[in-house]
């Protein structure tokens, strides 16, 4: 499996939780390298670093409670960044209230809300779903993703792309 | 991953350098037996072939570049041939059979060239009696006062009559391209209104639930659809049909390999069935038309469909033998509802009428390319396809074919194609050897190259075998062309051989070695089946 230049970014302040997320997404990591950050500040650094290297961020998985800042505000801030506009944004939390969640939905185009505790299957399902949409939207050649992501949806998108024989 | 200089891989970079060198090589090292135009044409041919093989630029870009270079360097209006005229003068008769001619006109082998008509010269041998600077006195029985002696035998117009540039750019509106445009628009509309999926659902119904018949059904439906749509789009659609079936299988059931391989194999083979099935057919038809052989849509089906059927049934048998089903029934869960909106019904009518008119071309005589304008005009008039849909059409493939056709025109016009075949002793080759040679070469090449490109590179040779007459009676232009078209579509050993193979492989269900094994057996069998048809069937239906 060839590693792509599409990254998954996980932002979570509790190391154990972060490890659990990374462990659960292990299978996807072969193709989508995972970067982690334990604070909003570190997240910004990681993003800058990846952007400077010309990498893409396909999905941002963010906890709500972060030291000093909250995840919803961070996602809203990141959404302003044009290069992260297409990135799929997921809030992974047990504590965000209705108001915050609505705010994230409206202002950061939040794509999914995962409540803690999550199951491995659910998390993978959500991430695969969102990354499939991301590559269909952003990538020219989507064949390399058929094996890891939703093959059905990807084939359907190839069919709709008016491809032809060469 | 792209990397390195200009974002090219080392192989692409090598191709870029070789291609550019190839373009200039014949001009730097002129070949005596080839006209100037032939040298230019050879440069363009080498560059195109290398670019198509190494792909430093996309293959459609190479096609566009070919047309551009031909317009620039070979057309009557380009800077090379613009305002140029072949310098000639008439001989002056001094005495009976003694002539005064310009010294420059004399060639090393003691002949002069006489211009017969634009692009054609005749060699006249003369005996030099005396030369004094500008003039020479020669003796010749053949010369007459009316002869136009070419005063510069190395002139670029010797044996070359440049085409108008419109011949090269006009290939984009070549009838066969318009035929494909019609096909593309029908396919685009079918996908938009899910006609392909609904047809699949209805057509698969009668094949029941027994695995072996489901595979047969899948292969037949795939082949029928890819005869009218692109093989690639058909394969992508059929993958969505087989994935749910494969999900029902036990993980270790090898039958899934067979299922996943059935799709690309049937899609590749199915494309052979009609002229619009796949682009190599277009290249062959365009080349034959250029030489005055018109094949109707009906003729093509009569020629190709029996071979398609044999290859499909053989592949079906082979897949079931190699990958026998582990269980006795499957449920084909194909959901969907026929779209009954006014536009969708409009599409069904246009689709039906067009296909009917195409396959009955022999009965009514209206050329298929003219019929192709029915869907082109009707689909947009009825707003079944809108502006965005038109923009989404695979224009790159139309350009790829146009460039291929244009390269062929240039190669025969410049005498390059004829020169290229002159190196081999074709006369010693019989009909069977020739059929075998072309089918093996075509299959071998198109396993690595685009099928269209393979047809593009081989067809000029086929045409010049006819023009030069080196093979005499045993050569049949039409059948040799068909051999090339069919063979190009039977190459399916590797994931890169065809886009349907790439799609099937990317699902991760099949292993490369399974694809290679099937591809090799299908290819070898294909050569034998082609030979059988070329000996026993095609001579009957084409005479």
What is this entry, summarized?
The complex is a heterodimer of chains A (166) and B (543). Chain A is built from seven helices and five strands; from the N terminus they run βααβαβαβαβαα. Chain A has 166 residues and is an alpha/beta fold.
Count of individual helical segments of chain A: 7
Distance between the termini of chain B: 52 Å
Please identify the oligomeric state. Answer: heterodimer
Number of strands of chain B: 8
**Terminal-residue CA separation of chain A:** 26 Å
Walk me through the structure:
- Chain A is α/β, with parallel strands linked by helices and 166 residues long.
- Chain A has a domain at 6-119: Response regulator (Rossmann fold, 3-Layer(aba) Sandwich), CATH 3.40.50.2300.
- Helix content of chain A is 46%, strand content 17%.
- Chain A has 7 helices and 5 strands.
- Chain A has helices spanning 15-24, 26-29, 40-52, 71-80, 98-108, 120-138, 151-160; strands at 6-11, 34-37, 56-63, 88-93, 112-115.
- Chain A has a 5-stranded parallel beta sheet with strand order 2-1-3-4-5, with helices on both faces.
- The longest helix of chain A is centred in the last third of the chain and has 19 residues, at 120-138.
- Chain B has 543 residues and is of the alpha+beta class.
- Among the domains of chain B are: 88-150, conserved putative lor/sdh protein from methanococcus maripaludis s2 fold; 171-283 and 294-394, no CATH class.
- Helices cover 61% and strands 7% of the residues of chain B.
- Chain B has 22 helices and 8 strands.
- Chain B has helices at residues 10-28, 36-54, 59-73, 165-169, 175-192, 195-204, 211-228, 231-248, 255-270, 279-290, 297-322, 342-359, 361-364, 368-381, 387-392, 395-413, 416-421, 431-448, 451-468, 477-489, 499-506, 512-542, and strands at 88-89, 92-95, 98-102, 111-117, 120-125, 127-132, 135-139, 148-150.
- In chain B, the strands form 2 sheets. Chain B has a 4-stranded antiparallel beta sheet, with no helix packed on it. Chain B has a 4-stranded antiparallel beta sheet with strand order 2-3-7-6, with no helix packed on it.
- In chain B, a hairpin with a 2-residue loop joins strand 4 (111-117) and strand 5 (120-125).
- In chain B, helix 10 (279-290) runs parallel beside helix 16 (395-413).
